[in-house]
Amino acid sequence: MQVNRETFNDVMVPNYNPAAMVPVRGQGSRVWDQENVEYIDFAGGIAVNVLGHCHPALTSALLEQGNKLWHLSNVFTNEPALRLAAKLVDATFADKVYFANSGAEANEAALKLARRFMLDHHDEGKDEIIAFKQGFHGRTFFTVTVGGQPAYSDGFGPKPGGIIHGEYGNLAMLEDMMSNKTCAVMMEPMQGEGGIIVPEPEFVKGVRALCDKHNALLIFDEVQSGMGRTGKLFEYMNLDVTPDILTSAKSLGGGFPIGAMLTTAKIAESLKPGTHGSTYGGNPLACAVAEAAFDVINQQEVLDGVLLKEALFREHLARINNKYEVFTEIRGKGMLLGCALNEKYKGRARDFMVAANNEGLMCLVAGMNVVRFAPSLVIPEEDIIEGLARFEKGIAKLVSTPSDSK
Questions:
Q1: Is 156 annotated as a binding residue?
Q2: pLDDT at 148
Q3: Is residue 225 a known part of a binding site?
Q4: Which is it for strands 30-33 and 163-166: parallel, antiparallel or unpaired?
Q5: Is 222 annotated as a binding residue?
Q6: Which of 315, 345, 344, 343 lies closest to 330 in space, CA to CA?
Q7: CATH of domain 5-55+300-405
């Protein structure tokens, strides 16, 4: 059966507007489309393909487990899930792990756990969730409401209650909002979809202190910032702040769908049998691939290499910006970077993404004003240099074209 981009319009629900080209094959940080046109991948499947495409450790794990056992349900446990959970516990603050299929599901579990914990240890009135404007925590109705972007949650009827939003980075506002009703504060230790916003360390420490003061739980959504992307296994390790609950997904599976919620033994006790679950969560196939990804990522050589690659990105982006004057700053850490557009190009992030794609570079946006890069942690230096050369070609064409002709 022959399919192409037009087939999407014929058979798919129109909630996406994918690129004109259709990728069919990937190797490392390079991708080829139906016409065998090559692209360098700085998008990483939206910060998912943490080791690029078809990494031998991941494909080997997939094939080996694929010939053993795919799915059991949670009536049984399985060896890959137990090994992966043990490695996550050993490498982090956590004592216990819950597996799901995505970041949204991991966040849903975290929010439900926080409320159930407070019900067990306090009273029914301590159920208020505080999150931050421009945050993103998934697309379930609960998580999209907690995420502070009304454009994603409006238009679906009454929203879940007991959720309020502060300004990311504004500690005084958060202090005014918190009370004995506060159940938990949920935050990204670096905002992703909201524009690759790196908070001041003092803000994050202040959030932790306020949670302690009000007996509230601190939930870190590390779906995008975790699994080596900032040069540490998780971003909380860079901040000297330990959350009560942490969520992971995206890079956790290296491209295979899996999510995880990590927490302490005391808090975990509130998810007793029957309180929450997932049919596919923790299935052997996903956990085997994620374990292989973890084993590669959690090596000092790989984590140190992330910061060296970041420096190379920043060096070339600074050179490009000196020439074309399109960015106000380069935000982010490690292999999660955002190029913030200046006033002249405000609102045109998607134009930059399309221009790059036309030159053979896959990248992302983070809102209307930030071009986002989330490449493989092990992307070769030559692919970084070549990818940014293609990015520069796209910029050169875009800046020479009047905006009203787009």
A1: no
A2: 87
A3: no
A4: unpaired
A5: yes
A6: 315
A7: 3.90.1150.10
Q: Which long-range contacts (CB under 8 A, 24 or more apart) does 73-77 make?
A: 73/279, 74/277, 74/278, 74/279, 74/281, 74/282, 77/282
224 is in an annotated binding site: yes
User: CATH 3.90.1150.10 in the chain, residues?
Assistant: 5-55+300-405
Tell me the three state secondary structure of residue 45. helix
The boundaries of every CATH 3.40.640.10 domain in the chain are 57-297
Is-catalytic flag, 136? yes
- Is 2 labelled a binding residue? no
Q: Catalytic residue, from 117, 127, 181, 221: name it.
A: 221
Q: Which of 181, 250, 309, 333 is catalytic?
A: 250
Cα 392 → chain centroid: 26
Q: Which of 99, 117, 136, 234 is catalytic?
A: 136
Judge contact between 297 and 310, C-beta under 8 A: no
- Give the contacts of 197 (CB within 8 A, at least 6 positions apart): 134, 168, 169, 190, 191, 331
Per-residue pLDDT, 153? 93
- Any catalytic annotation for residue 250? yes
Distance CA 226, CA 249 (A): 8
Tell me which fold the domain 57-297 belongs to: Aspartate Aminotransferase; domain 2 (3.40.640)
Q: What is the pLDDT of residue 397?
A: 96
E strand residue ranges, 83-213: 96-100, 128-132, 163-166, 182-187
Q: Which pLDDT score, from 0 to 100, does residue 116 have?
A: 97
* Average pLDDT, consecutive stretches of 10 residues, N- to C-terminus, the chain (406 residues): 94 94 97 97 98 98 98 95 98 98 98 97 92 96 93 92 97 98 98 94 98 98 98 97 98 98 98 94 97 98 98 98 97 98 97 97 96 98 98 96 55
CA pair distance 374, 43, nearest whole angstrom:
5
The answer to whether residue 203 is catalytic is: no
Amino acid letter, 346: K
